[in-house]
Amino acid sequence: MTKLHHTPVLVVGAGIMGTGIAQVAAQAGHPVMLHDTRDGAAAAAKTKLASTLQGLVAKGKLAADAADATLARITPTDVLQDAAGAGLVVEAIVEDLAAKRHLLQRLEGIVAPTCVLATNTSSISVTAIANGLQHPGRLVGMHFFNPVPLMKLVEVVSGLHTEASVAEAIHTLAKAWGKVPVHTRSTPGFIVNRIARPYYAETLALLLEQAATPAVIDACLRGAGFRMGPCELMDLIGHDTNFAVTNSVYDANFQDKRYMPSLVQREMVDGGLLGRKSGRGFYRYPDGAPALPVAVLEAPNTAREVTVHGEGAIADLLETAATQALAGQGWGPARLRSTGWTGLVIDGAHLVMSTGRTAGELAAELRTQQVAVFDRIVALPAAPGTALAYAVNEGANPNWRTQAAAWLAALGFAPLPVADTPGLVVARTLAMLINEAADAVLQGVCTPEGADAAMKLGVNYPAGPFEWLARWNETEVVRLLDTLDNHYRGERYRVSPWLRRRAIKETA
């Protein structure tokens, strides 16, 4: 059962995913049968694939003989019984538990007992799919990402019945197919769809509070290194699809408030604002996200005293930038490293990198109204003009409101004003992604290394959650999450025990 090298493969489902899986298996040298219940669908899929491969040949991305060999290995079939000799079946049919169970139970009467059964489900429990099989230990999840030929990640999903040797055989096979496999337990959302939830959820929460516009939120997270902001990404995925996955994870976790769907997104789905597919979501298409208005910023006033606070790479960056900003005045900033926060004090006014607390809370503590907070700086060194969210204390005077933005611009950023909300945009989003990944590790869903690989390869994150944590630290992340938890008073921001234990150990 565990020797799958060049074994005949049956792919059931000739849609985009199934055809992509068939292509990858055939390119790796397997004889592949492609089956679909729709008459002629498998043959039509092969014809379309032939056109795709010829396009790659024409662009010089694939040798003509390799394209011909790939197509020669794929045999469309409308008769499931033709798969009797398959050593591996990969089903890529509709995301419906009953349909998957029925198919796999039927296949057990056709294929040999040693044939491995794999499901490409993205959200259904592998344990539940295996229920009722004669040999449930041979069923494993083999979750590919779209487009299959290009996306490297494969989640190898083990249900309660899955034999370890079967999961390891699929892991080895995926490597032979040129993929990067990651082991995961069969829990709601597996790795990627689970850990990614806060990327959407925090944005939707900010929109519900009217803290910022979609364009501003997207710009801030692109500034943190993400290829697409959450609003444009949800528009691309489709709000109906994204909302359905969120509901699936929420229901599968017994309505855990961390995964609660958003009223903002439900209204969009109800109104048919599904994103690119409908012509309108957060943005109108084909235009997409509008350009942000060009801010007219004043130069910083001549300062008498500037002090950079904090320790580490971000404080070092601020010191270098402040030195350059003050060069024309013939002097540089002072530096205090042990104050416990990162930012600047400019003639008594405070410009503080977010620890989760609002500018208003900090103003009350510092007993000065001239306070502004700015978002966490992630990409180091920061590219000139990187978007950066900031908020000013409501009681600040007009001069400091102007000067807070002027100083952020002088430091090399493109300051974007948002409401004075805890954690702003990037800091709260990254903290929640880290927290969700920590819980996944706590529950044995994956390893930290597996989580990092899955998020970078499955959804193109600029770094993995544990890589962000290494650049930050457990104590500060826990402090920010606790601040959010105290502010919102709910279950959503509770800290993962894995993360809190690490923070206690860090400070011991």
What does this structure look like?
By secondary structure, the chain is α/β, with parallel strands linked by helices. It has four domains: 9-186, NAD(P)-binding Rossmann-like Domain (Rossmann fold), CATH 3.40.50; 194-278, N-(1-d-carboxylethyl)-l-norvaline Dehydrogenase, domain 2, CATH 1.10.1040.50; 306-417, Transcription Regulator spoIIAA (2-Layer Sandwich), CATH 3.30.750; 426-507, N-(1-d-carboxylethyl)-l-norvaline Dehydrogenase, domain 2. It has 20 helices and 15 strands. An eight-stranded mixed sheet has the order 3-2-1-4-5-6-7-8, with helices on both faces. Strands 10-9-11-12-13-14-15 form a seven-stranded mixed sheet, with helices on both faces. Strand 6 (139-144) and strand 7 (153-158) form a beta hairpin. Helix 8 (197-208) runs antiparallel to helix 16 (426-442). The model has no long low-confidence stretch (mean pLDDT 96).
